[in-house]
Amino acid sequence: QLQTVESGGGLVQAGGSLRLSCAASGRAFSRYTMGWFRQAPGKEREFVAGISWSGGSSYYADSVKGRFTISRDNAKNTVYLQMNSLKPEDTAVYYCAAASGQVKITTEGYMYWGQGTQVTVSS
User: Fold this and answer.
1) Is 85 left (phi over 0), alpha (psi -120 to 50) or beta?
2) What is the pLDDT of residue 45?
């Protein structure tokens, strides 16, 4: 069982950067694939980035590829999302989630979810 808490969201101008953190409880953190998702008002939750348990494999949505970087520090039970060159369309609530097995790019299979952190990008 994992509990995840996101932080680092806020208001930023277009072109700026934010670094999101997801702190997870539990000794088994390193066994989970971790993912970042986001949900804008009126839209479904969508995949942003995922990383394998070892950190050796990652996957990004096309919309963020080249701008966002996912990483994890298993010793700290934390996964990060570095967001650069932010755009207004990145505005959403960002969630971290945990799943077993290989990196997944949909919500299916993610069994633990955080409460989310708001990211707002102004034009």
Assistant:
1) left
2) 96
